[in-house]
Structures are given as C-alpha cells and as structure tokens.
Amino acid sequence: MNTYSPEDLSRIIEMAWEDRTPFEAIENLYGLNQHQLIDLMRKELKSGSFKLWRKRTTGRTTKHLKLRSPEINRAYCPTQYKR
After folding, report:
1. What InterPro entries is this protein classified in (predicted)?
2. What is the pLDDT of residue 35?
3. How do the domains of the chain map onto residue ranges?
4. Rounded to an integer, what distance in angstroms lies between the CA atom of residue 19 and that of residue 21?
5. pLDDT surpasses 70 at 66
6. What's the rounded Cα separation, in Å, for the pair 34 and 53?
7. 20-24, 45-49, 73-77: range with lowest mean pLDDT
8. Which of 26, 39, 54, 79 is deepest in the core (most CB within 10 A)?
9. What is the pTM assigned to this prediction?
10. CA 34 – CA 55 distance, rounded (Å)
C-alpha cells in the first residue's frame, strides 16, 4: 500500500465518509480501489468507527458510480465547501 502524507490520509478518510463521494473518485485521485480503501480504513479508524463506516457504506448507491442516478453529476453537496 502507498504511503500517504497526513494531509492526504485525512482527505482520503474524509472522502470515504462522505455519502456522495464515490469509491471511483477516491481511486482516480489516490489510486486506492475499494478493497484497498477498506483495508486503509480498517487500519486507520478505531474498530467501532470502522464498523459504523462499513455499515453506512455497504449497499449505498451513491458510493458507486454504476449504481448512481445519472441525475447526480457532482461528488459533494453545493454547500459543503463554503467560502
């Protein structure tokens, strides 16, 4: 597995928790496929947090581009990044 800077690692975990960020976006930006991301999250999160994250992401259509509605063409809420 690649070694990531603390900033990149923080961003990867943040993106993994976001409901509308698909696994494919994380793979495109950081080179982690879904299985590698799960391994990274298992390693970096506390056990309870990891279980909660897995429960939250399992079966969630917004986390997979192929399962997403074609009407959704963004990876985040418009108010997420306030200026």
Report:
1. CHP03643
2. 94
3. 6-67
4. 6
5. no
6. 13
7. 73-77
8. 26
9. 0.73
10. 15
